């Protein structure tokens, strides 16, 4: 798909991987709308990129529908959507204080999995109204899973379940939306230098990087953005979950 003036939506675009995706898409010529809860940082980045910021809670149907309506009014129907909004709280199934509160598990599922589907459904509906290109393509949706979907560590039960759901949804959605000319892919990142990771002491970051086969360093958000750009460009990439992890296979803890 060509990027020039194509309306793009990036959830979680105010920081981390989402910011990397937003910057890559804007640099390629897309009209970027950042959906996030962090208004101050989101507006700052949107202004820098010549795009717009829209406050959005991805786990809420009403919030996401209103955000899409705003983006559509300003930029037109969405042609590229990137799901980066997510949370990653740790918690054991049975901890020192007993079983994990069910609401803790549910919250992660609501944001990471339901939120990804929420954006997928609305983006696909927008894309179905767009004029197709020569291949019949109308849009591309990219979600973010994690290698924890495959090798979830102790304390990641909710996170792993949510990201496993995103992976499982990818091929099914690609098959179902093929008739609308919408491609669906997922990126499963490994260890990246996100704001959360940057808050760890340097020795912790170094010890984590040492577990990576090659290259032995944390990934940068712009490298995530690079893969987003490549997925949008390549018309044959569809229904795939791509690991972006330096060949890391995580140990139990």
Automatic annotation (TrEMBL):
Organism superkingdom: Bacteria
GO molecular function: oxidoreductase activity
Family annotation (InterPro entries): NAD(P)-bd_dom_sf, Sc_DH/Rdtase_CS, SDR_fam
Record's keyword terms, sorted: Oxidoreductase
Pfam families in alphabetical order: adh_short
Gene3D superfamilies recorded: NAD(P)-binding Rossmann-like Domain (3.40.50.720)
Family: Belongs to the short-chain dehydrogenases/reductases (SDR) family.
Name of the protein in its database record: NAD(P)-dependent dehydrogenase, short-chain alcohol dehydrogenase family
The species this protein was found in: Marinobacterium stanieri
